[in-house]
């Protein structure tokens, strides 16, 4: 896997930081889950990881916090970070099962359409004022975000807020089980101008239908929103979600470096 130029970790622009964190975390997570870095192994020090990936130590710390939150590593103060033994439940998590099948972007879209169309219909019928407020907050966050990572997080939060408003915890858990892959798609959709295809309903239009209490319109707009990817992803449609995301992260990092040059 190509590395960011290590000669200038201190000059990484703010918009690159989130992408770099995502890229390093993805690589280390893959190496841990695949066994390339075995259980019990000590990770290199923060300084060594920073040099290896051409990143600042602050970025490395954020990566380590993320891996610790996923229970992939245990941080022992004064000793370092060690790969944790994964329980059978963790090893067989839904995200891991999905990724083992190398699902494509097309397959993820095909799975999201029936799931989220039903979710938004139920949410329109059942949403409380608190649910509607959460949708508005997520929608505003996406509209105001300038960083692609922040945009993807807000995008994911919007869809989760709708799932919470459905009042069905099973449906929300089902959507949450594919949220990692959804986030990877959202990195692409929130930084690709072609995704802003005119006339296609996006979050504001979906929210408008929910606020109006029109479940049929909300379902139709969600379906059209999700089907947009089938027209705009081109050859990436039939590439695995993980590969597509990694390639897009690399592209965004190169573009950011070129703008700095």
Highlighted features:
single chain; 261 residues; mainly alpha; 13 helices; globular; disordered N terminus
What are the SSEs and their pairings?
Blueprint: H1 14-34, H2 46-53, H3 57-69, E1 73-76, E2 80-83, H4 88-91, H5 94-100, H6 105-126, H7 129-144, H8 148-165, H9 169-176, H10 179-189, H11 203-211, H12 215-232, H13 241-260
Antiparallel strand pairs: 1-2
Helix pairs in contact: 1-3, 1-13, 2-3, 6-8, 6-9, 6-12, 7-8, 7-11, 8-10, 10-13, 11-12
Short description:
The protein is mainly alpha-helical. 67% of the residues lie in helices and 3% in strands. It is globular and about 55 Å long.
Account of the protein in words:
- By secondary structure, this protein is mostly helical.
- It has helices spanning 14-34, 46-53, 57-69, 88-91, 94-100, 105-126, 129-144, 148-165, 169-176, 179-189, 203-211, 215-232, 241-260, and strands spanning 73-76, 80-83.
- Strands 1-2 form a two-stranded antiparallel ribbon.
- A hairpin with a 3-residue loop joins strand 1 and strand 2.
- Helix 1 packs antiparallel against helix 13 and helix 6 (105-126) runs antiparallel to helix 12.
- Residues 1-10 have low confidence and may be disordered.
């Amino acid at each position: 896997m190509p590395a960011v130029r290590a000669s200038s970790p201190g000059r990484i622009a703010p918009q690159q930081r989130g992408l770099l964190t995502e890229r390093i975390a993805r690589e280390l997570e893959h190496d841990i889950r695949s066994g390339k870095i075995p259980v019990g192994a000590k990770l290199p020090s923060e300084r060594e990881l920073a040099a290896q990936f051409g990143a600042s130590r602050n970025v490395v710390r954020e990566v380590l916090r993320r891996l610790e939150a996923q229970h992939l590593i245990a941080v022992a103060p004064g000793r370092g970070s060690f790969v944790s033994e994964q329980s059978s439940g963790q090893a067989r998590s839904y995200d891991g099962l999905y990724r083992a099948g190398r699902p494509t972007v097309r397959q993820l879209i095909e799975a999201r359409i029936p799931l989220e169309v039903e979710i938004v219909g139920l949410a329109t019928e059942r949403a409380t004022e608190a649910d509607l407020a959460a949708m508005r907050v997520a929608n505003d966050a996406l509209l105001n975000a300038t960083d692609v990572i922040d945009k993807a997080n807000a995008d994911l939060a919007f869809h989760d807020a709708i799932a919470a408003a459905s009042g069905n915890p099973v449906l929300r858990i089902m959507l949450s089980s594919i949220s990692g892959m959804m986030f990877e798609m959202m990195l692409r959709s929130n930084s690709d101008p072609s995704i802003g295809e005119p006339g296609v309903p996006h979050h504001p239009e979906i929210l408008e239908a929910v606020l109006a209490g029109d479940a049929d319109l909300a379902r139709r707009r969600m379906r059209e929103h999700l089907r947009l990817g089938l027209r705009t992803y081109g050859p990436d449609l039939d590439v695995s979600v993980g590969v597509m995301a990694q390639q897009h992260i690399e592209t965004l990092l190169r573009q950011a470096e070129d703008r700095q040059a």
